Amino acid sequence: MSNFFATHRKIRWFGLSLAALLLAVVLFTIFFDWNDLRPAVAHIISEETGRRAAINGNLRVHLWSWNPSAQVDGLTIDNPPWAAQRVMFAADQLGVSVSLGRLLLGQLVLPQIRLVRPTVDLERDAKGRASWDLGTAAGKPQRPSRRPAKIPPIRRLLIEDGRIRIADSIRKLTLTGSVNAADVAHRPGAGFELQCTGSLNAKPFRAELRGGPLINLDPDHPYDLDAHVTASDITLHARTHFPKPFDMAEYHVKLEISGNDLADVYYLTGLALPDTPPYRLAADIEHRGTIFRLDDLEGKLGSSDVAGQVEVQTGRSRPKLVARIHSKRLDLIDLAPVLGHPAAGGEPPPRGPAAPQRLFPDADLQMNRVRGMDADVSYRANAVIAPKMPMKEVSFHLLLNDGLLRIDPLAFVLKAGKFDGSVTIDARSSVPQSTIDMALDDVDLGQFKPAKAQQPPLQGSLVGRVEIRGRGASVHKLAASADGTISVALPHGEMNDAFAELTGIDVMKGLGLLLSPKQPNVQIRCGVIDFRARNGTLDSRSVFIDTSTVLITGRGHIDLGDERLDLSLQGDPKKLRLFRLRTPITLRGTLMHPRIGVKPGALLAQAGVATALGTLLTPFAAALAFIDPGLAKNKDCAAVIAQAGADVSDQPPRGAAPKTPP
Length: 662
Hints:
With 662 residues, the protein is α+β, with helices and mostly antiparallel strands.
């Protein structure tokens, strides 16, 4: 060997130089004061996080080991300038070691992380700026990452006397808590513990997370974490299973949650869910990449059962909820909270001691939530419980995209006929714009029979259409600004004779029929109820029912803003009647509390059937075209139109002398 180096002088000098360099590196790392690198390390942290960082204690590095390590004393990382607390992260000691063997194989494994008295302060303001959005000094909202965080495997995690504080103005969440992780569990099954208390939406909040000791963790062995959260009436229990700790790209959760209103879960999840009656739900959640999938979802909303699959897609500018839900049995009263009414047995929102009771709820749509997510939700109920309503099925398909919400179709299937159409709410502007377009299709009136009645007051197939446009964030505001048309037609059918006679108010016969055990029916030749809505007021354009014995006509208006009625009905008999009061029936009061009476002092001049129908002919024909262009071809309605046209042609002009018969 000596002869080799003697004959190869260049190789000898290269070897000596390399050995000297290695010796110098070893001596340098042994005697070098690593504290001299504190400003450089702090600068690197500042550049990566966008936050001012400082090392106020010693910096120690141990390189000559199979697990090289570093320890930093007094590390601080500041919050953005707008935050209430100056420091986002601080620790008396932070120690990290790296497995050199795994690193040479391309794997980052941390044999140990040790934190002594760490404090974490996370804040988000009403503008959406979050201190945990790193990379910008101001903490401006960042586009969600399409790749979930993947924490390197940690073989041993030690946390001593940790403290955490969170203040989130968007979620209305404030909490403070403690976190500890030890080699051994202080209580059975709990080596890792996080306990927090605070408030969620101004209601008491408490959270507890517990897991086994974080020691000798292996990336190929799973780890389980239990979470229990209570927030006022919300109770949540979740057991999270990490197949590869702590790979956040894949984990499984068994979830159970209950509460009074599912919409309040927004403050925990950020998802805009509808208002509901008290609920109890369970699901298995699988998280892969940026998708959360809820399989085997089942539970109760009020007295209605729900089941199906739900998928939440993150990593987008707005999260998207995709759900396919069904119910074996739906109690229709459980849909009341969706429209702003209190749940069954619940209390309505306070409006002051003198506030009137309204039919249209005035609860505002939470526009910031609607704009903050997208959705594609299908729902179907196979059976419906609806007192006084012969309903069989309910179904809808909801699409929400960038603040534009559309429910199409929305269908209520009756035992005979259906009420279906679409609803659109455009919440992209400051004031939502809404459109309702619903149709009555072949609804048999005979199915609406009072429980104590031997026969229904009306029979026949009803068709109609409701087309309303309005603005406002609540159902009441929409109604108070409504423009559009409401039209209903009964091409033919039967009416209880007492019902028809009383509209003409034939006292003797009407009361007699009501008292008789079996009430005869009269034929309905045609009937139309047609209202035009302008700025929240429904004005009658055409209201009449033509029977074989009486022509019933009506007029008036309904103020949807004040919910007040001012309607009257007049009956003109086609045969001689005794004791007939020639004055209309009035319908006044409110939609919630209508009052029926007789209009005093304003006797209407008796009008002939032809004259009345002639006056109503034009709006009647317009209503039929609005409902269904083919409806005018019905033989009964067509006969009425033809007869009215013929009779009108024989009438003298207004103010002219009547024709003299030849």
